[in-house]
UniProtKB/TrEMBL annotation, chain A:
GO terms for biological process: organic acid metabolic process; sulfur compound biosynthetic process. One of its GO terms (molecular function) is oxidoreductase activity. It comes from the Archaea. It comes from Halorubrum ruber. Pfam families: Transket_pyr, Transketolase_C. Residues 7-182 form the Transketolase-like pyrimidine-binding domain. CDD domains: TPP_PYR_E1-PDHc-beta_like. Its cofactor is thiamine diphosphate. This is Alpha-ketoacid dehydrogenase subunit beta. PANTHER family: PYRUVATE DEHYDROGENASE E1 COMPONENT BETA SUBUNIT (PTHR43257), PYRUVATE DEHYDROGENASE E1 COMPONENT SUBUNIT BETA (PTHR43257:SF2).
Automatic annotation (TrEMBL), chain B:
GO terms for molecular function: oxidoreductase activity, acting on the aldehyde or oxo group of donors, disulfide as acceptor. Keywords: Oxidoreductase, Pyruvate. Residues 37-330 form the Dehydrogenase E1 component domain. The keyword Mitochondrion does not apply. The keyword Oxidoreductase applies. InterPro entries: Alpha-ketoacid_DH_E1_comp, DH_E1, PdhA/BkdA, THDP-binding. CDD domains: TPP_E1_PDC_ADC_BCADC. The gene is pdhA. Pfam families: E1_dh. One of its GO terms (biological process) is branched-chain amino acid catabolic process. This is Pyruvate dehydrogenase (Acetyl-transferring) E1 component subunit alpha.
């Protein structure tokens, strides 16, 4: 009988880091405040005490330095897990991410590969100061050579993180901080992986396929339940990995229902919803019975918190978007 | 007193401009000195041929190194085979000394990614084009070696312009904090394309920037291969086996000059005077070592002629080998993006391959 713990998402991530540090001496956790302090969200709590400062490393405050030194470590065969404290601060490290992290394998014809996992809390909804709530996952999904993983449940967060750390390729692992502590789930203590690159069906339904990921999975399911009471059955698909995207799962759910809505908190223009819409146009046009809906953040800079509840897609907006697709 | 205990502007020199000994000679036997000289001649000849190939349309844009052989060959000659080299994009001479075949360098600038794929026993990182972006890699790689209890040293090359970039400061700062076995080797060639060294910093020297990070900094005459060798050797030795009171990392500023253009796409006559170029050419590192070796009776006309003809043959062979490489198969576009090809990439390739089968290569390729 597998031992489990009832954990929040951030605790499951901590447990995932703990497990991988224990399993593989080449894994190191590094970043600002990840050591003694245990991370600003407690994602690395206790790891420093157990594994010491050479495995759980407090670095200088320098995002490019954190990503760039991790690139060098990974090229030498280690499995660094750098943390950027908030995804809104990834931009000073952006050059290292796109110019090197994503390209090292290709450029060296596979001689060097970068088994590194760059973690960052991302997204809004926690009343944080400016630059602490952005969701710019599309930047990274656009960059070939990277994988981009966004968990939405504690169990999967631990398994997806383990799969990411063990992956020979570099992974951007974005953690929706709105749901860091929103609920608990039984999480096995033993090591396990949840494969990246695969979507999960969260709810079955024949009327409309709703695609989402990360923190938006919960309001989407809430909207689906409400509509279910009115006899509208939503198939809710949680993408879990936005690059490489599980196109098969997306197309299959659409073919089943003929209608689709995509929900994400990132701005609409250039976001994943546009990509999913294009995939459905390419691969399943003849199944389409209504325009594909997009319920997303607005194309505005992420607001200070007095307005963020209006900015983020709510269950009400999602319901409305689904109804438009269903009633077309 | 070590070379690290001097003032930042007290430039280390072994040979003066006439090849006269003015400092402490490194412990190298005559054959090693001739080998170093031969590498410099090889790098110089290679460089001339590369520029010429670009002019003939046989190679893409190329960054010349002439003038910098003293710094490149002198420093690389100090590396053990197990040590790692993290280059920028101009260190063809240094990489050559460390074992990278000339053919690889040619291939890279001829547009073949395979040029970056060094033989497995040659410890060289891929060329890094974004300025200073390789500096944190060198720190990270050295850090990995230290964390794993290995004993390798890492030398990272960059130019004077790179010292203005954030990545230089972040990479060197991390090296200081974590005491990584890294030698930061600044090829101060005076010009970052058209912008002079004085426009990069108000610091009197680049070597003194080490002070800010608590590591050693030393300025060396980059046109003096023996001085460069001595300083680099001392820095590598300290990286591998530091004395208790010395930091492992070192910042070396090698003062030198780029005789030619930044790249073959650049025209340096727009921004610098002929007089300046001529005055630096009088400090030519190859002439300097040759004068010294002739004076010592180690080199004579016959030996120099023999070296020249072997160098010419070696470069000609490398060019033949590189030019006879077939154009890479387009499958290679996809092959190395991920360890395991994602299904969508496989699909993109198959779609393209089907069209290529149908239309033939002529539909895609110029000329």
């Amino acid at each position: 009988m597998t031992e489990t713990q009832n954990l929040t998402l951030v605790q499951a991530i901590r447990d995932g880091l703990h497990t991988e540090l224990r399993e593989d001496d080449d894994v190191v956790v590094m970043g600002q405040d990840v050591g003694k302090n245990g991370g600003v969200f407690r994602a690395t709590e206790g790891l420093f005490d157990e594994f010491g400062g050479d495995r759980v490393i407090d670095t200088p405050l320098a995002e490019s330095g954190i990503v760039g030194t991790a690139v060098g470590m990974a090229a030498m065969g280690m499995r660094p897990v750098p943390e950027i404290q908030f995804s809104g601060f990834m931009y000073p490290g952006f050059d290292q991410i796109v110019s090197h992290m994503a390209r090292f394998r290709t450029r060296s014809r596979g001689r060097f590969t970068l088994p590194m996992t760059l973690r960052a809390p991302y997204g809004g909804g926690i009343r944080a100061p400016e630059h602490h709530s952005e969701s710019k996952e599309a930047f990274y999904a656009h960059e070939a050579g990277l994988k981009v993983v966004i968990p939405s449940t504690p169990y999967e967060a631990k398994g997806l993180l383990a799969a990411s750390i063990r992956d020979p390729d570099p992974v951007i692992f974005l953690e929706p901080k709105l749901i860091y502590r929103a609920f608990r789930e039984e999480v096995p203590e033993e090591p396990y992986t949840v494969p990246t690159g695969e979507a999960a069906t969260r709810r079955e339904g024949d009327d409309v396929a709703v695609f989402t990921y990360g923190a938006m999975t919960r309001p989407t399911l809430e909207a689906a339940e409400t509509l279910g009471e009115e006899g509208i059955e939503c198939e809710v698909v949680d993408l879990r990995t936005i690059s490489p995207l599980d196109r098969e799962a997306v197309v299959e759910a659409f073919e089943k229902t003929g209608r689709a809505v995509v929900v994400h908190e990132a701005p609409k223009t250039g976001g994943l919803a546009g990509e999913i819409t294009a995939i459905l146009q390419e691969e399943a046009l003849l199944y389409q019975e209504a325009p594909i809906g997009r319920v997303t953040g607005f194309d505005v800079p992420y607001p200070l918190y007095a307005l963020e509840d209006y900015y983020l897609p709510s269950a009400a907006r999602i319901e409305d978007g689904i109804l438009e697709a269903v009633e077309f | 007193m070590t070379v690290f205990d001097r003032a930042y502007d007290d430039t280390v020199r072994v040979l003066d401009e006439d090849g006269e000994v003015v400092g402490d000679l490194p412990d190298l036997d005559d054959e090693s000195l001739v080998e170093m000289y031969r590498h410099m001649r090889l790098a110089r000849h290679f460089d001339g041929r590369a520029v010429s190939l670009q002019r003939q349309g046989r190679m893409g844009t190329y960054p010349p190194l002439s003038g910098q052989e003293g710094a490149q060959i002198g420093s690389a000659y100090a590396l053990d085979a197990d040590d790692w080299m993290i280059p920028s994009y101009r260190e063809h001479g240094a990489a050559l000394v460390h074992g990278l075949p000339l053919k690889q360098t040619l291939l890279y600038w001829m547009g073949h990614e395979d040029g970056n794929n060094a033989p497995p026993d040659v410890n060289v990182f891929p060329v890094a084009v974004p300025i200073a972006s390789q500096v944190p890699h060198a720190t990270g790689a050295a850090w990995a070696s230290k964390l794993r209890g290995e004993n390798d040293a890492f030398v990272c090359y960059f130019g004077d312009g790179a010292t203005s970039e954030g990545d230089f400061h972040e990479g060197v700062n991390f090296a200081g904090v974590f005491d990584t076995p890294t030698v930061f080797f600044c090829n101060n060639n005076q010009w970052a394309i058209s912008v002079p060294r004085e426009r990069q910093t108000r610091s009197a020297t680049l070597a003194q920037k080490a002070e800010a990070y608590g590591i050693d900094g030393v300025q060396v005459d980059g046109m003096d291969p023996l001085a460069v060798y001595s300083v680099t050797e001392a820095a590598l030795e300290k990286a591998r086996d530091p004395e208790t009171d010395r930091p492992r990392p070192t910042l070396i500023e090698a003062v030198q000059y780029r005789f030619g253009a930044h790249t073959t796409a650049d025209d340096p006559t727009v921004y610098r005077d002929d007089d300046e170029v001529e005055s630096w050419k009088r400090k030519d590192p190859i002439d300097r070592l040759e004068s010294y070796l002739r004076g010592e009776g180690v080199l004579d006309d016959e030996r120099v002629a023999e070296i020249e003809s072997s160098v010419e043959a070696q470069v000609a062979d490398a060019i033949d080998a590189a030019e006879s490489m077939a154009r890479p198969d387009p499958r290679e576009l996809f092959e190395h993006a991920y360890a395991e090809l994602p299904p969508e990439l496989e699909r993109q390739y198959e779609e393209f391959a089907a069209l290529r089968d149908e239309r033939g290569d002529a539909a895609f390729l110029e000329d």
